[in-house]
Amino acid sequence: MLFLIVFMAVPVGLLAFYTFFKRGRFGGVVFEPTLDNWAKLFEPLYVGVIAQSIGLALVVTLLALLIGYPMAYAIAGLSPKWRTVALIAVVLPFWTNFLIRTYAWILLLNNAGWVNQWLQGLGITDEPISMLYTPQAIVVGLLYMYLPLMVLPLYASLQQLDPSLREAATNLGATPWRAFRTITLPLSVPGALTGSIFVFVPAMSNFVIPELIGGGKTIMIGNLVRDQFFEARDWPFGATLALLLTFLLVLVIVAQAAVSRRLTEGPRRG
Amino acid sequence: MADRITTEAPTTEAIRRAEPTARPRLARKPRGILVPLWLGYVFLYLPILIVVVMSFNDSSNLFVWRGFSLRWYPELFANEALMQGLVNTLIVATGATAIATVLGTLLAYGIQHYTRGGLIRAFAIAPAIMPDLLLGIGLLTFFSLITFTVGLHSVIIAHGVFATAFVTAIVLARMANLDPSLEEASRDLGAGPVRTFVRITLPQLAPGIVAGALLAFTLSLDEFVIAFFTSAPTQPTLPIVIYSMVRFGVTPEVNALASILLLVSIVTVIAAQRLTRLTGSTR
């Protein structure tokens, strides 16, 4: 307990504390109280970065939902034995080194990379399409990184679903599509919400992918924090950004908890 | 599903009788449902596959295939930066796992037995959920405030913090399934709290603790962001070495390294899967 207090609560508290002070001329912190750091967040430059981060993370989350849902649905329909295999197959890439997976995308998306070689080989394009170092590449990279985190909770909620409900719907004459829409889909919303959080939260704070796959041209909050610490040496402002990020994420998580509580309590209240 | 049809079909109830007609429609699941799954797997595995294939490439050009060769594997082991990174990573992961396993277990025990509120529980598990960026820079500022020099020891502590949270969560989950009467019996028979913990509680928690330790170790091996902020430039962990290589130009040894790491993680995941199934069936 003490260990956690010393090495978690104190550092985070310290960050919160730092946000109210000035940066030293050569880095570090000068203990003159100020609110400048918080005011700085509202400069258009930073508002833009924050909005861009939220936007990119949202796109990634939506795509993960679109791709992950059919995958989870298909896995839930498999026999128990194949289900385990299919699940392990989803999780496995997640356990391979994060940076190596990022690097793999550089091999694929580079101008001389494999996707371009295939496209030209098939005669679809004559000239290489620049894919690396674009915002789209960041989206693909983040999507690739966190897709398993979407599939797992979705699968869990689809698998818990009582099959008799769907059967009842079919017996009552619902078409499979209608049964899916009125029974399966609404009941899997909590899983979808959890998955969305799992994807959205790390996608928001990631700074490696925007740098390596995005070429540092598209800056997200994570990059900004990193730069404040290592390049600008403006620790108070870096701390402010990091706390803002955390605050946004806590907000998202609280909203998610509230929504899924309402969903699960809804039927009981009638 | 299939055998349930045959066992349940011959009931006379009217509702049940409707089933045989309804069932086939469900059982005849469209095969097309598997298409998105396969596409998903292509998306997940294609990049990895490319890396593995290219690790056997004879050319030093990353994008041109020039015949099969094993040359990058010996060169990998000759690459000092990568090997030093590997050693550092193993030291950190071992240290962090030791810290996390001991503290996580004790913390879980303490939470279960001496506290009621969810607040301390939430606090203990918080590092697992909070953005690693926040923990990383928090520790960096803290270390610099107390003028604690960074090096491998600071990464061990940092990784210990977040790994402890994972161990605590897993051990707590396992503790919830334990039968408290065993501990009560032990105490009624005159054993002190320490003896009860060592002789009764600990053996029952063992599978959870082992699972937690395994997770802590693997997470620490792969962790980049926290290490990035809390390590010294002279003693980088493997992910940090790879990061700077990817940033400034990759040599094909990385392909070989990636393939080996991939193999290791496949083996670990399958072993962990076996382990949980074993403990699951015996208890």
Automatic annotation (TrEMBL), chain A:
Gene Ontology cellular component terms for the protein in this record: plasma membrane
Subcellular location: Cell membrane
Pfam families, per the entry: BPD_transp_1
Its membrane topology: Multi-pass membrane protein
Gene Ontology terms: biological process: transmembrane transport
Homology family: Belongs to the binding-protein-dependent transport system permease family. CysTW subfamily.
Main subcellular location: membrane
The ABC transmembrane type-1 domain, residue ranges: 50-258
Transmembrane helix found in the keyword field: yes
Transmembrane residue ranges: 45-72, 84-108, 137-158, 179-201, 235-259
Protein's UniProt name: ABC transporter permease
This protein's UniProt keywords: Cell membrane, Membrane, Transmembrane, Transmembrane helix, Transport
InterPro entries: MetI-like (IPR000515), MetI-like_sf (IPR035906)
Automatic annotation (TrEMBL), chain B:
Keyword match Methyltransferase: no
GO cellular component, one term: plasma membrane
GO biological process, one term: transmembrane transport
Signal peptide segment: none
Transmembrane segments: 33-56, 90-111, 123-146, 152-173, 205-229, 254-273
One Pfam family named in its UniProt record: BPD_transp_1
InterPro entries: Bact_Polyamine_Transport (IPR051789), MetI-like (IPR000515), MetI-like_sf (IPR035906)
Coiled coil: none
Its membrane topology: Multi-pass membrane protein
Keywords attached to this entry: Cell membrane, Membrane, Transmembrane, Transmembrane helix, Transport
Keyword Cell wall biogenesis/degradation attributed: no
Domain ABC transmembrane type-1 residues, every copy: 86-272
PROSITE patterns: ABC_TM1
Location in the cell: Cell membrane
Recorded family membership: Belongs to the binding-protein-dependent transport system permease family. CysTW subfamily.
UniProt-listed PANTHER family: PUTRESCINE TRANSPORT SYSTEM PERMEASE PROTEIN POTI (PTHR43848)
Name of the featured protein: Putrescine/spermidine ABC transporter permease
Native organism: Agromyces rhizosphaerae
